[in-house]
Amino acid sequence: MFLLSNKIIYYIILTLVIFIVQVNFPYILFYNNYKITLDLILVYITIAALLKGSYKLIFYAFIYGIIQDIVFSTSQLGLLSFISSLSTFFLISLKNYDNLWDMKMKYIVIFLIYLFHFVFYYLILYNDMFSVIFLISFFQAIFTFLLFFLVSNFIIKIK
Fold this sequence. Notes:
By secondary structure, the protein is mainly alpha-helical. The protein has a single domain, classed as Arp2/3 complex 21 kDa subunit ARPC3 (Orthogonal Bundle), CATH 1.10.1760. It has helices spanning about 1-25, 40-50, 55-70, 80-95, 105-125, 130-155; strands spanning about 30, 35. It starts with a helix and ends in a 5-residue tail after the last helix. The relative contact order is 0.12.
């Protein structure tokens, strides 16, 4: 019981640190004052999905999304929680292909999930041409994937 409570406290502290860094992380101004940031929470969920693969992560992603909605965009309450839950479901589904796909294929699928995540989010958030939204989403997915790639290869060593 003591070991379990230490693990829960560790995850709560890690989550709080990630939220604090996410809120205070600098952003890149893109075309027409659109902001691109690194989505640390999505990277955290991706790593947890690849390591654990538990469907409890969908609930946690929903909670993280609600908190992000409250902190970042109060006008679209529930948008990030839905998209995060859906993306987490897709990321957890990658565990089913551990024996079938090599890591390169998983990286391609993770990037496509990130791209889906951001295209869906920006399509609802911004009322602009699809080409602009796709370009913003593409760069956001690239930056987030690069962060995931660095963390998964040099810090955590995901196989």
